[in-house]
Recover the amino acids of this structure.
């Protein structure tokens, strides 16, 4: 049996809790078109019981709650979950949070209509996470694997930003870089889903710009895996100063249009279609 090269890529130590405040304040959620496409695939409907794996500060979980779903968010980071609770209070929604592993939630069998994972599936032990999601879903339930990725084009905000990250994070190699900017792997991941009992799936993708002020984009960058959660404080300060200057030079306007790629995959079991 050959090893999966994606699984063997070395990673620097990453503690998202170190960047929890930036994560909660600056990260943007998925655009409206993403949720419209999910609804067409029977996901995000009012009254559905949803479990959001790797919920972080609850961005996707909160959107489902605002759509009328009964939502539970799961994450390993107590700091991120605390940010999520504060954001829920401000948004006037109620989400149950539990601190646990996506691969071993400890939750009862067949308790959810939807299990979701947004821009986090690449951090999991994927075969175990897929099996756990299958166990947690009711008959006819849906697994949603989604990603909100940066979209690099020559000279755009993302290219300038990723070049700066490479410069200040020498541990990022040509092999590890795809994990940083492209966190959705289709169709490679579908073999894990098939092994777990998900027979069918539908995938979609599109690009869109998201607006950020210069301050907000620097905050968003600080919340990225190879930046705030991984850099030493002095390196982070030098990185932020250099990137800020580069962005002001290339994009002096107040609002940045930051290109993103949106991906979604909805999977279900053929013998229990709802």
């Amino acid at each position: 049996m050959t090893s999966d090269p994606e699984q063997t890529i070395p990673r620097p130590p990453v503690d998202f809790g170190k960047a929890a405040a930036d994560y909660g304040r600056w990260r943007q959620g998925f655009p409206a078109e993403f949720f419209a496409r999910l609804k067409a695939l029977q996901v995000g409907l009012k009254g559905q019981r949803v479990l959001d794996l790797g919920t972080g500060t609850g961005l996707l979980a909160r959107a489902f709650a605002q759509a009328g779903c009964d939502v539970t968010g799961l994450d390993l980071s107590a700091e991120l979950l605390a940010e999520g609770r504060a954001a829920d209070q401000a948004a006037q929604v109620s989400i149950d949070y539990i601190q646990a592993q996506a691969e071993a939630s400890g939750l009862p069998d067949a308790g959810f209509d939807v299990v979701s994972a947004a821009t986090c599936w690449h951090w999991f032990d994927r075969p175990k996470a897929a099996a756990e999601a299958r166990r947690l879903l009711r008959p006819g339930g849906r697994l949603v694997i989604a990603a909100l990725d940066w979209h690099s084009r020559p000279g755009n905000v993302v290219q300038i930003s990723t070049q700066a990250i490479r410069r200040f994070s020498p541990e990022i190699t040509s092999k590890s870089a795809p994990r940083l900017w492209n966190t959705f792997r289709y169709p490679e991941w579908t073999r894990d889903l098939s092994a777990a009992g998900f027979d069918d799936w539908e995938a979609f993708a599109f690009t869109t710009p998201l607006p950020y002020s210069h301050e907000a984009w620097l905050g968003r960058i600080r919340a990225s895996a190879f930046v705030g959660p991984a850099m030493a404080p002095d390196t982070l300060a030098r990185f932020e100063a250099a990137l800020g200057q580069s962005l002001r030079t290339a994009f002096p306007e107040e609002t940045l249009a930051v290109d993103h790629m949106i991906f979604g995959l909805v999977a279900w079991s053929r013998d229990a279609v709802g």
